[in-house]
Specification:
Layout: E1 8-10, H1 18-26, E2 32-34, H2 55-67, H3 71-85
Parallel strand pairs: 1-2
Helix pairs in contact: 2-3
């Protein structure tokens, strides 16, 4: 997927799924976006909560922490990637 330049998006499970965190560490930051994939029952800090778009900030912060970015830097990167993906 990386070789072909495919974008991927991470969901709230990046906060508690080790496999997802490992993928997030390996995938190039310029090919990453965030989503909530709702409605979907997430676990961890989201257990019992209804999926909501506001969870994207948590996804961005978790992804950013894996790469040493601040929350605001991560949001800027993921927003720019999403705009580029959708040609906005």
């Amino acid at each position: 997927m990386i070789k072909n330049g495919y974008y991927i998006s991470f969901t709230p499970d990046i906060l508690y799924e080790t496999e997802i965190q490992e993928l997030a560490r390996r995938y190039p930051p310029e090919l990453v976006m965030a989503e909530t994939d709702g409605p979907w029952p997430f676990e961890g800090p989201f257990a019992g909560r209804v999926t909501h778009p506001s969870m994207i900030r948590d996804v961005a912060a978790a992804w950013g922490a894996l790469h040493g970015y601040t929350s605001s830097q991560a949001e800027e990167i993921l927003t720019a990637n999403t705009k580029r993906f959708y040609s906005l």
